[in-house]
Amino acid sequence: MQTEVCGSNFPSACDSFPSSFFVSPRFLSSVSLVQRRTLQTSEDHRAFSGGMASIADYYAGKNVLITGATGFMGKVLVEKLLRSCPGVRALYLLVRNKAGQSMEERVNDMMKCKLFDRVREDNPDFHLKIVPISSELIQPGLAISPKDRETLTSCIDIIFHCAATIRFDEPLKHALQLNVMATQQLLTLAQQMAHLQAFIHISTAYANCNRRHIDEIIYPPPVEPKKLIDSLEWMEDSIVREITPRLIGERPNTYTYTKALAECVVQMESGSLNIGIIRPSIVGASWQEPFPGWIDNFNGPSGVFIAAGKGILRTMRANNDAVADLIPVDMVINLTLAAGWYTAVHRPKAPLVYNCTTGGINPFHWGEIEHHVMSSFKRNPLEQAFRRPNANITSNYLMNQYWILVSHKLPALIYDLYLRLSGQKPQMMRIFNRLHKAISLLEYFSSQDWEWNSENISLLMSHLSPEDRKTFNFDVRQLNWPEYIENYCIGTKKYVLNEDMSDIPAARQHLRKLRNIRYTFNTLLLVFIWRVFIARSQMARNIWYFVVSLCFKFLSYVRASSTLAN
């Protein structure tokens, strides 16, 4: 679907866009041809049979290049390769210096993570297979030294491109640099690799969220990526910010917009490379591997779960009946490795796209998530909760705003006043403001449904041996949602907040204390209302006595009815 870029009411900056900025008919024709070739490849895929090595055997002796290895999905990918494909020769990780840490320090910190405990038990020297490469994705040539470039081009067998900015509110220029231009430069490097067998690009299932039904094909881009990059290069940041809403059109943010452009870059500049594209939906904690519930960040649903468990989040605007398309991170990584194996061995004629989602196969709804998250945190409470967990989801805007005022802002103001009076720095209003911003960014995805075709997923699964299906399991039909949500909530407690499970009795005692405080407060509030309003008004007293007498009459009627029945 083509999005109009310039209109009559568009800011004056749009006049500087050349007419060729729009997607040309010739390009659309080429995209349609590639779509037909992709579907034909699926037919070839269906006819393909047997004779291939197992996934672990394929990766044995291979040199693998990974971008984004220090991120959430990248870590799980590295761990899974080392644990389930122990014969892999080396993992080359493109890493940059960050926050005063060198790339070596960042990689060493990553390998000390609890995530690698199982690998460490099996092979204490696993770190010898990790080769960090200094790189900066937004710099020309990825800022890779000539020596490292020569090493990579001479030995790499497969590339997993996981690096991206996942911030929904990222400025468009920066999102383009990280999600589109970096992909373009990595493809240029890949073209120079003598032994490369597969290039696997991690996209997102929401790259085409402007559509309700999404097939496993690469859709025409809203604009031609190269011309967009050239046009924005000379613009001031203020102008780019001003025109961004018009550019992204029906998409909710720069993340989904630039990921759609990145897919088109992969398609247009892949040349003779064997390409696979993975589109995961909302990636959550691990299902089984390396252990249930592993998570290391506050992104996406994790931060919402923690805020609800702490009693900070009381209301969220979402559709209770909308599908919450969560996908466990280990399932995404298992699919990624299986797709890498299949792409390298089968060498499809056009990029194969895999919609890695759960909604169409094993749906779970936001209303169900609310129930199971609250139940889990009441059984396994977080330490030092602000209030008892009791969040509610509503799709009504006015009702949501009412509860934000009553359950979020007023308690925050009262608590901040208490902190000021006790000589401490107020912080709750700032926390709530950040929470509201994060939730508003998720609202688009929690209020509606999409339908994703997953034929390529099914076809890939049909080519796995029974052993590979077990070792690299991405069958979402096996996912037990209540159990998964329970482990997810426990995972946020253990791995994100670093809380000890042995302290749960104390946390439960704290919740009971909060309950008693709430009951006391409600009682005092009732007495206050009585003294101020009811006790001073004859009409209010008459209404009150009338309501109480009705209640007594009803109770007497129920008691008499039960006596007669007996």
From TrEMBL:
Task: Spell out the CDD domains in the cross-references.
Answer: FAR-N_SDR_e, FAR_C
Catalyzed chemical reaction(s)? eicosanoyl-CoA + 2 NADPH + 2 H(+) = eicosan-1-ol + 2 NADP(+) + CoA; hexadecanoyl-CoA + 2 NADPH + 2 H(+) = hexadecan-1-ol + 2 NADP(+) + CoA; (9Z,12Z)-octadecadienoyl-CoA + 2 NADPH + 2 H(+) = (9Z,12Z)-octadecadien-1-ol + 2 NADP(+) + CoA; 18-methylnonadecanoyl-CoA + 2 NADPH + 2 H(+) = 18-methylnonadecan-1-ol + 2 NADP(+) + CoA
Q: Which Gene3D superfamilies match?
A: NAD(P)-binding Rossmann-like Domain
A single Gene Ontology MF term assigned here is: alcohol-forming long-chain fatty acyl-CoA reductase activity
The Fatty acyl-CoA reductase C-terminal domain extends over 408-499
KW Membrane (keyword) present: yes
Q: Keyword Membrane: yes or no?
A: yes
Look up the record and report any one GO term of the cellular component aspect.
peroxisomal membrane
Any transmembrane segments, and where?
519-537, 543-560
Q: Where in the cell is it found?
A: Peroxisome membrane
Residue limits of the Thioester reductase (TE) domain?
Answer: 66-335
- Where the protein is mainly located, per its record? membrane
Q: Which family does the record claim for this protein?
A: Belongs to the fatty acyl-CoA reductase family.
Q: What function is annotated for this protein?
A: Catalyzes the reduction of fatty acyl-CoA to fatty alcohols.
Q: What is this protein called?
A: Fatty acyl-CoA reductase
